[in-house]
UniProtKB/TrEMBL annotation:
Organism: Ornithinibacillus halotolerans
Source superkingdom: Bacteria
Protein's UniProt name: Membrane protein YlbC
Gene3D superfamilies found in the cross-reference section: CAP
Gene that this polypeptide is encoded by: ylbC
Domain CAP-associated: 70-209
Domain SCP: residue ranges: 241-350
Listed InterPro entries: CAP_assoc, CAP_dom, CAP_sf
Coiled-coil positions: none
């Protein structure tokens, strides 16, 4: 069984005080650790002729998102126009990013000209019969949440194991032989926060849960240094975008991107990765206050979230949302600016309250 551990820590400081909101111990039971953009073009009606073969038998899932896995990039552009960005992922596919007014945010994962995975969040996402903001109990009535989910490919077989926390926070549902739905719940409100659709191959390469298998197991592609830099830059902007979508959901003000603070955050993520530690304090004892001072950053108040070993940016943000200290930073009323720094799978958010 493969076990992936995830870590998140949050801290808030002011110009005269440094206060840890919450420092989470490593959870060894866990099995997997802006600018608005108007969508362009027509909306595709989802009916039988548009559905890929792998979900023809699941016609009760009529929301817009369920029909896109397996479709071509030509169809994607026809329906949505050109994406705001194309962000390389660390799993071989490229995210096509489509945000809309902080209420409808979609990432389409494209590989070899076809959509292989989708992450979506925001109040206007069409995932009928589900809905972002639906209660856990209402969604559970529509879907069956199990502690194990199987997938077969040829003579190979795979079983994903979910513990109790997985089932409450990120249950996995098999929609068909080669289509899986991962649901992210806000465990504080017990409401659906976002969804991720993926093929079995994508699920295997990401492996967000415990896994037992027979046969071959695919590995993520090797990335050069320049490719990793592209992945990291993309995840930084995704974290920024998704953070603002979540803040919009809770009627919080939109944060502005702060480039010099992003550099501070990136250097901390890189330092943690290269020096094999996970803390708000570097080995020399310096913390966020000193890091901001070192770059001549001026502010009224500042806060920091860090995370490590989440599979990607959306998963990291959902992890922060589900931890009390990180959530307080993510949804803090007084913050005005945000810098994000990602190095490999180490993630840092630096929030600021600045004068206007």
């Amino acid at each position: 069984m493969r076990i992936i551990k995830w870590f998140v820590i949050s801290v808030v400081i002011t110009t005269i005080a440094f206060v840890i909101l919450e420092k989470s111990d490593v959870n060894f039971d866990k099995l997997a650790a802006n600018d608005s953009h108007q969508l362009i073009g027509k909306k595709t009606d989802i009916n039988r002729k548009h559905l890929p073969e792998n979900i023809i038998t699941s016609l009760k899932y009529k929301g817009e998102m369920f029909g896109w896995v397996g479709k071509s990039t030509e169809e994607l552009v026809e329906a949505y126009g050109e994406p705001k960005r194309k962000d390389l992922s660390s799993y071989g596919y490229t995210w096509w990013i489509y945000p809309q007014n902080d209420t409808k945010y979609i990432q389409f994962g494209v590989l070899d000209g076809k959509v292989e995975t989708i992450f979506a969040t925001g109040e206007e996402i069409e995932i009928n019969p589900l809905q972002i903001g639906s209660s856990y109990n209402d969604v559970a009535k529509q879907l069956e949440f199990l502690d194990s989910v199987t997938y077969s490919e040829g003579i190979s077989s795979y079983t994903f194991f979910l513990n109790e926390e997985d089932i409450q926070m990120t249950p996995l549902v098999k929609l068909s032989e080669n289509l899986f739905l991962q649901l992210y719940f806000d465990t504080f409100t017990e409401k659906l926060s976002s969804v991720r659709l993926m093929t079995g191959d994508i699920l295997l390469v990401q492996r967000p849960y415990g896994l037992r298998y027979r046969g071959s197991l695919p590995e993520p592609p090797y990335l050069s240094e320049s490719e990793w830099e592209k992945v990291e830059a993309g995840m930084e902007r995704q974290i920024f975008d998704i953070t603002n979508v979540i803040r919009q959901t809770f009627n919080k003000n939109k944060l502005d991107w702060e480039e010099n603070v992003s550099e501070v955050a990136f250097l901390h993520s890189k330092d943690m990765a290269e020096n094999n530690y996970f803390s708000h304090f570097s080995p020399n004892g310096e913390g966020l206050k000193e890091r901001l001072q070192g770059k001549d950053v001026y502010y009224f108040a500042a806060g920091e979230n860090i995370a490590a070993q989440y599979i990607d940016a959306p998963a990291a943000v959902e992890g922060w949302l589900n931890s009390k200290g990180h959530r307080e930073a993510l949804l803090h009323d007084e913050y005005t600016h945000l810098g994000v720094g990602v190095y490999r799978l180490y993630y840092t958010q630096n929030f600021l309250t600045k004068p206007f």
